[in-house]
Design brief:
CATH class of one domain: Alpha Beta
Oligomer: single chain
Number of helices: 3
Distance between the termini: 45 Å
Structural class: alpha/beta
Order of helices and strands: HEHEEH
CATH topology of one domain: Rossmann fold
CATH superfamily of one domain: TPP-binding domain
Length: 142
């Protein structure tokens, strides 16, 4: 068994199944997890994010669609684009004349529309891309 399959104590562990959209099934997910209460009101403390199944605030969704519609290129990373709120941005970009590039380990809803697809895990691909010397941006901007 190689190092990637050993924990910090050296004991072997099971590698979880990684799905194309980056989801991982963990045997102990949520074990001993407690949602902290809000110190001001005692209610449920939640981050300022949109959880799976929730709707984007309408103004934020409209602003994202406008940006996508005016983009020359939309880069979708680590998503199967099965959720329509994300796929809608792809459609807006393509309808506006932009192109689509994908980085994902598996199939996506937009594979047929992409100008480029890199089949890889998002974190690995982005780390390699970020380390590429040709991408070095001089201090002070573009």
């Amino acid at each position: 068994m190689d190092e990637a399959h050993r924990g910090s104590e050296g004991a072997p562990f099971a590698v979880p199944v990684v799905r194309p959209d980056g989801d991982v099934e963990l045997a102990d997910a949520g074990a001993n997890f407690a949602v902290p209460p809000c110190r001001a009101c005692g209610g449920v403390l939640t981050p300022d994010v949109v959880f799976f199944g929730d709707s984007l605030p309408p103004a934020r969704a409209a602003a994202a669609k406008d940006v996508a519609a005016g983009a020359d290129l939309l880069l979708a990373v680590g998503t199967s684009l099965q959720v329509f709120s994300a796929f809608r941005l792809v459609q807006a970009c393509l309808d506006g004349g932009g192109k689509l590039a994908l980085v994902n380990a598996g199939p996506t809803r937009a594979d047929g529309a992409a100008s480029l697809k890199v089949v890889a895990r998002a974190g690995e691909a982005l780390a390699r891309l970020a380390a590429h010397p040709a991408l070095a941006v001089p201090r002070g901007g573009r």
